[in-house]
Amino acid sequence: MKNYNVVGHSVRRFDAVEKATGTATFTTDIKLPGMLYGKVLRSPHPHARIISIDTTEAEKMPGVKAAATYKNTPRVKYNGAATSMITLPPMAPVEDQYVFDNVVRYVGDEVAAVAAISEAVAEAALKLIKVEYEALPAVYDPLEAVSPATPEVHKECREGKNISGDLTKLNMGDVEKGFAECDVVIEDTFKVPVQKQVQMETQSAVAQVGLDGKITVWSTTQAPHPCKMILSKVFNIPQSKLRVLNPPYIGGGFGVRIGFSGKAEPIAVALSMLAKRPVKVVYTREEDFIASDTRHAGYITVKLGAKKDGAFHCIDMNATLNTGAYASWGVEAPAVLGCMGLAVYRIPNQNYIGRSVYTNTTPAGAMRGFGNPQGIFALESAVDMIAEKLGMDPVELRLKNIIQVGDPWVLPYQCASTGLAECIERGAKSIGWERRSKLNRPGDKILRGIGIGVGTHCSNAWPWFGDYSNAYVTVHQDGSVHLATGVPDMGTGTSTTLPQILAEALGVELESVSITFADTQATPFEIGSHASRTCYCAGNAVVAAAQDVRKQLLDYAAELLKVPPEKLDIKNSIIYIMGETAVDCSCSCAPVRQISLKEIAWRAHQQNKQFIGVGRIIPENAPPWHAHLAEVEVDTETGQVRVIKVVAAHDAGKVINPVIVEGQIQGGVLQGVGYAISEEIRYNDKGKQLHDAFHKYMLPTAEDVPEMEAIIVETNEPTGPFGAKGVGECGMVPTAPAITNAFYNATGIRLKEIPLTQEKVFMALKERA
Amino acid sequence: MSVILTFTLNGEITEVAVSPSDTLLDILRDKLNLVGSKKGCGKGECGACTVIMNGEAVNSCLVPALKASGANVETIEGIGSVEKFHPLQESFMDLGAIQCGFCTPGMIMSSKALLDKNPNPAREDVREAISGNICRCTGYVKIEEAVLDAAKKLQERPARRG
Fold first, then answer.
1. pLDDT tens across A187-204, in order?
2. What's the CATH code of the domain at A377?
């Protein structure tokens, strides 16, 4: 693979100094003159109609400046997820919620909000709001919610009762005929839990309404431009009068705020309009847990058939996901689940139907992997089950069946690169796959096992919704270069990797590049940082902008150097004639054979010209690949599962910054470990979330981290910037099945429901004994 | 009702008017505008607000402000500068231990409290020291490496310790 000057190097992050010294600004740090604090009254009922609501007493309280309810806020239906602004026709976005409504649909649903001079005053005022509810029947399980006897969460469901939007139907070949031709068939249903992103900074926004009607919103959104568009629709304000920006940092995301951050933005705007002062809304951790999007829970059924020799021949999958009280990304999550589930293996006959269902629980939306970890847990469990039935080694079976470049699949783009075979082989070698059958002796109380899970993902949001990217590159009068891009950096390193791509594509020194990001007023449109798209899509736009400005520079230099522009190149910020060595020459030796960016930018300035590049791209898409191998230990006396080691081998195309990519993989893997063995939000029979705080929601701490090895398998993806593909979500994708397959290898028990909590494992071991 | 709290903050005697219900974190962030210490939960469960008080790492969101009376408090703002970073800051920056950055100040302060007491920690000591600091981005791997790396740097440069 080609060596580059800047790309492929683990340069120090651009945001490192600010973040290491505590000077990086987050939304929660913002304080404006005259700023008020907003607090939200939330429903104690899972489903109820508001008979009456009275804020008079609350508004009389000293220090209270505004109160908002459904009565004095816009009656405009919206969907707070960016999907509402980028859904591609003929599909239509599901718009099913108001800023406040007179019906509440889950415990935590927004009822009212107040703005006051302090958080304490605002909280006290909430207690003075009088609300009379008429309780309505509630439903919590998605399979129950589609049955005739259960209540309707929303009335307008054109695909059937409580079905939140379009179904996803995928088909290739002939499934009926296909199964008839199989020698071995397995079928089972798997259940997946509610997982929470638990990003460190809770949902937050500060809104400032100017006297001229312009509104500025600093927030934790992962998608400032779509966030601006949704606000524009809800509040009926031209987009040109709205500015949404990150300040510039966000304390994590993992999908929870691709669009609105819960309702922090619209509530802050509504209160600020009423109070005519800036308003800050910061969710408590409990509010974040119960009232911002979660991962979809649900059921996935897999029927998989193979020929005697192990060749997969037919698959039928279906998924019913629980999207909670509002659709959010409910249409797209089962779509991605199906597409990614069917994209891993070469199977001539395929069928998938996926749907999301409303229930009276916290809305489910996007979380790292976006449906894919759910489907892959089911699929990769099924692959191990059929391997056993075929009497084949799970690694061999996967190597035999994985998709190769050019294979037909259900996706409308090509598989143009895959390093999956190498990922599997290197991962298996590293974990010591051959030890698999020799880990335990009769009588062992602690059992060990090794398992594998593999998968793929996307590098942007198309074809599930619209996706395009823009970037501006400006050469300043001293030759330094500025990049403007609409994507945030929620911690994934965008504000470093995009400058790396620019420096490489333009031929300038990284130190001369600065970046503005995630500000709708200073950057062109971007759909945001999600879908593992930022480096791939925004990166491609940066390359395009760099090429544009490079052409302008070379054309200009060609006249000065009296050679055709095709003979010129730029290296280390110096334009030189190819074939002649570029030297940093500042003397006035004649004839001029080269010119620095500094000099040419200044000359152009003196002739009333600036070099400004614009990049506009519509991306292809590309599959990253990954194989995870896990070793676990199961205590047969207590039921405790410990993950000892995870090897995560990833093909992310050409890696722009290896340390950043390793960090993405490691962080994703640990979230996957939590998904597999400990993390879930459950509900009591009154619809109350039982896991609404750090000490109740069992996410891994530093003491739970297994030995982790990230293996980077580089391929060259022809559609990506310098060959790069997505990686952000991938660490999450196949971790759970690697662990559950290892659990099966240790115990011989196939649990079809995650997480493998101590209680669940203990009961399963007891049942078998 | 407010009371004057006097304490040593990052080496300087500091006086600030506080109300009895204020926490140390409230004072740092709202009154003294030191917003490096973060509020991730307000209940002592995530460690984002960790500061060092009299040599111990504490969740400043759980410390009543008046408890800091006469105490020696160190925050992320006081341990290094762009001219002279603390070795922990250098290692966090160089080894990729920082992603979103929201846990970073608390993580560095918990680690500093450890290294101040135990300049040669084992991996398990590091894990225990930061076990109250939640990080959702990194999987802790590079943070652990950074703390061990900083310990090594401090060992090599004993003059800069403390």
1. 999 999 999 999 999 999
2. 3.30.365.10
